[in-house]
Amino acid sequence: MFDTPQPARPGTLHIVATPIGNLRDISLRALDVLRTADLIAAEDTRASQTLLAAHGIRARLFALHEHNEAAAATRLVEALQAGKSVAYISDAGTPGISDPGARLVAAARAAGLPVSPIPGASAVTTTLSVAGMDAPWLFVGFLPARSAARHQALRDLAALPCALVFYEAPHRVEACVGDLLEVLGGERELLIARELTKRFEQIHACPLAAAPAWLAADEHHRRGEFVLVVSPPAPAAGGEDDVEARRILRILLEELPVRQAAHLAARLSGARKNALYDLALSMKKEE
Ligand code: SAM
To answer: Is the Cβ atom of 94 under 6 angstroms away from ligand 1?
Structure first.
């Protein structure tokens, strides 16, 4: 029902999404739950007080963060078992998305307690909503901090036939983009979304090859919070499969038009016909 407030339910853990910048990006239902919950647990109690105060909510907050999640989860499960309604909020966006919350949810579910999502902002969906990209995507979150581990992680992801979505912090964004370029090549498109929903929000798209220059061009480009989206690899690109697909297509294209060649190549190789069609077209152009 739209017109009636929906208070927090007794004995239920509510996982509440909060804004990722703009304090007005919070749902009516999130406010209903936060106003009425017996207990609000928060990743950073000070940061969350600011949000709650902005919406006229006064509450004492219980801290649950990555360093105490297991012990704090046990206490919250006890409160839920005693019939209390509990809301959990992380620093920003949706709990459990590169944020604490998963252990708490698992503990509540293991105890047979109801867990209810109160949806709202997340940097990943906010970015994808303006990416203008109709492709499957994989949410990677933060890559490893060390370059060698980051390279390895990227090598494992490079050939996946989907877009890749990363979170990154300002002090690592240049190094991270440098590694994306090195491992994934310069041709894939990079969408850089920074400071979403905030005053200096910026969304910039360019080929990976041009991204380091864009970051270097202005110190503001390197400030704030980042989501990076790398477009999928070119159709059928990716190591041995690509070499084999090209070999088959080269032979078939000597005798057949593109559509028929792609059709037969798909039957021979088991690869997707549409991808082979695109590859055949690009090979024709290369000729
Ligand atoms: N739970 C959050 C969510 O649902 O998006 C993510 C928390 S994670 C600790 C913080 C990272 O999310 C930042 O380093 C950045 O990569 C991304 N992020 C959060 N807010 C953002 C914003 N306003 N603009 C761009 N990226 C943001």
So the answer is: yes
Ligand 1: centre distance to CA 253 (Å): 48
Distance (Å) from CA 167 to ligand 1 centroid: 7
Measured in Å, residue 96 CA sits from the centre of ligand 1 at: 12
Domain boundary among 100, 121, 142: 121
- Segments forming the whole domain that contains residue 273: 240-286
Residue 3 counted as domain residue:
no
pLDDT classification of 238: cutoffs 50, 70, 90: very low
Count: domains in the chain: 3
* Cβ of residue 227 lying under 6 Å from some atom of ligand 1: yes
Q: What is the CATH number of the domain that holds 76?
A: 3.40.1010.10
At residue 237, the pLDDT reads 46
Q: Could you tell me if 54 and 112 lie in one domain?
A: yes
Contact (CB, 8 A) for 204 and 192: yes
**Per-residue buried b or exposed e for 131-159, using 16+ beta carbons within 10 Å of the residue's own CB:** bebeeebebbeebeeeeeebeebbeebbe
Look up the pTM and report it.
0.84
Q: What is the pLDDT of residues 268-286, one digit of tens each?
A: 877 777 788 888 888 887 7
